[in-house]
Amino acid sequence: MFCLSLIEHNLPLPPHLLNRPLLDAIKEELERLFLDKVLSNLGLCISIYDIRAIEGGFVFPGDGSSTYKVVFRLIMFRPYVGEILCGKLKASDANGLHLSLGFFDDIKVPVHLLPHKSRMGDDGIWIWEHECGDLPMDLDEEVHFRVTKINYPPIPVEQDANASPFSPMEIIGEIYGDGLGLLSWWAD
């Protein structure tokens, strides 16, 4: 779920940070640039793990910033396909379920990856028609799901006013399988 990614970046350090110790100033600027951002095909940046190398300190003509070549490692949230995670059921609609891990909310379980013989109830909540009886998929319940795909969609040039906010990373999951689904289903 979490991994280290080695990054090399040419970092312009603004003049107002040059009075601080170099390592602290660079770490602060890296955190401003990378934390809580999604890097395509790498995942969501959680933290700066360490700074491996700093080279340079060049000031380019017409620029007050000092530019450094920095090699550093980031802690990234990037689950692998097949990994089983535990999230909370946040929303339910005709397209399926929307889950959250608390720090990451763009997790979807489409209808075709719900347990077979699932139907939407009158109240908009999905129900699994199990041989033991109907098992509702209530909101705010904990859910075990398997990651089936991770998407990094391209940034849209234009977006409709009524469209949902753009998410740079989407996880597609399934809850059909042994031990998957709501934890309340498997409690007894």
Note down, in words, how this protein is organized.
With 188 residues, the protein is mainly beta. The chain has 1 helix and 13 strands; from the N terminus they run E-H-E-E-E-E-E-E-E-E-E-E-E-E. The strands form 3 sheets. The protein has a 5-stranded mixed barrel with strand order 5-6-7-12-11. The chain has a 4-stranded antiparallel sheet with strand order 1-4-3-2. The protein is elongated, with a radius of gyration of 22 Å.
Cα distance, first to last residue? 28 Å
Sketch the major β-sheet: 5 strands, mixed, barrel
Question: Runs with pLDDT <50, length 5+?
Answer: none
Q: Give the number of DSSP strands.
A: 13
Mean pLDDT: 90
Radius of gyration computed on alpha carbons: 22 Å
Shape descriptor reads elongated
The largest sheet has its strands arranged as: 5-6-7-12-11
The tally of helices reads: 1
Question: Which class of secondary structure composition applies to the elements?
Answer: mainly beta
Strand-and-helix sequence, N→C?
EHEEEEEEEEEEEE
Helix content: under 10%
Percent strand equals: over 45%
Fill in the keyword field for this structure.
188 residues, five-stranded mixed β-barrel, four-stranded antiparallel sheet, 48% strand
Q: Can you describe this structure in just a few lines?
A:
The protein has 188 residues and is mostly beta strands. The protein is built from 1 helix and 13 strands; from the N terminus they run E-H-E-E-E-E-E-E-E-E-E-E-E-E.
Write the layout of secondary structure elements.
Elements lengths: L1 E12 L8 H13 L3 E2 L3 E17 L6 E12 L6 E10 L2 E5 L6 E4 L7 E3 L5 E5 L2 E4 L5 E10 L18 E5 L6 E2 L6
Parallel strand pairs: 7-12
Antiparallel strand pairs: 1-4, 2-3, 3-4, 5-6, 5-11, 6-7, 8-9, 9-10, 11-12, 11-13
